[in-house]
Amino acid sequence: MSGLTYGIYAAGQVATTVGPPDDPNAIDDLVTRLSGGRPFVVREYLHFLGTPADPEKVRVLEPERRMRELTMPDEWYTAGNRRLDLVLCYLPVERDVDGWLDFIGQAVRRYGAVARLLQITLEPNFKLPWIDGSSPGVLDALIAGTRHARRLLDAAGHRDVRLGFSVAEPPEFLGGDEEFWAHLEALSPADFAAHVDYMGLGLYPDAFSPVPKSAVAGLTEHALRQLREQNMPRAHLGPDVPIHVAENGTPTGTDRTADDQADRLGIMIRTVAATAARLNVTHHELFGLRDADSTRPEPMSQFGLTSSGYQPKPAFDLCRKLIGEGGPSMR
User: Fold this and answer.
1) What InterPro entries does the database record attribute to this sequence (predicted)?
2) 50 domain-assigned
C-alpha cells in the first residue's frame, strides 16, 4: 500500500437527506479510531446560495449557521494530526459571481487559519440539481473564485493552504462534459491553472447504477486515468499537480448488504493505492463516516461506514485496517 493521506466526511447530512443530529463525541471517537494518529483529513462543506436564495436550500443547508460553526469546534480540526478540507459550493438560483467572491472572502476570514485544503466549487462539470454544475455562471465562479481565493489566502498569510477544485467521474457517467473541459482548455495557464494546487475527483463508480463487483476495480482505475491522462492536460494541469480522491463511497441498501459494501469499498481503496504513485494521487477521502438516515433505502441515505446511529458496519473496520496499512507513518 502507498503512503496516501486518508480522510473522511464526518457529518451526517447528504444533500437534502437529513437524519439524526450529529453526535460530536461519537465523531471524535470514530475518527480517532480510523486515523490511528496518522495525518487525516476531515471534509466539510459551506454553501453560497446567492440573492435571493432558494428558500428550500436555505432551510436544508443553513448556510449562515455553517459559516459560523462547522460540525466540530475549530480546534478539533487541527488536533490529533487532523486537517480541515473545506469545500465552498456555488448554488445560486441566478448568476451571482460578485456575491460569490464576497462569500469566499467571508470563508477565508472565518476559516483560513483552520483549513489546510480549500476547494472552490463542487463538481462544476456535473449538471444535476443541488450540484454546482447546474448553477448559472458556474464556470466563471470556478475561475474567478480560484484566482480570488489565492489572492486572499496570500494576503492573509495562509500560504500553506492548498487550493483546488473537484470534478465528477468520467464523461460517460455524466452524459458528457465536453463544454466544461473545452472552456478550461481555452484559458491561458496563467489565468487559471497556475493558481490550482490539486485536482479533486468525486469517485462513485458503482453507487448509482448496477455494476458487478468484478468491474469495480477497472472502473475505479478508469476514472483516475481519464482525469490524469485526458482531462487534466486539457486544463493545463500537469503531472506535478496531485490528484485528491475528494469523495469515494458506495452505499448499503435494499440490494446491497453491509458485507458487499465493505468488499466493494476495499476494492476501490486498494485500486487507488495501487495506482497512486503512477498517477500522482496523494489523498483519499471517504464519503462518509455515518449514514445520513439508515431508515431510508435510497443510496444517498446509506453511504456511511456506520449507521446513522454510529453503529459500525463491516466497512468501518476494513477501512481502519487499510488506512493503517497505507497511510503515512505517525509523526
Assistant:
1) GH
2) yes
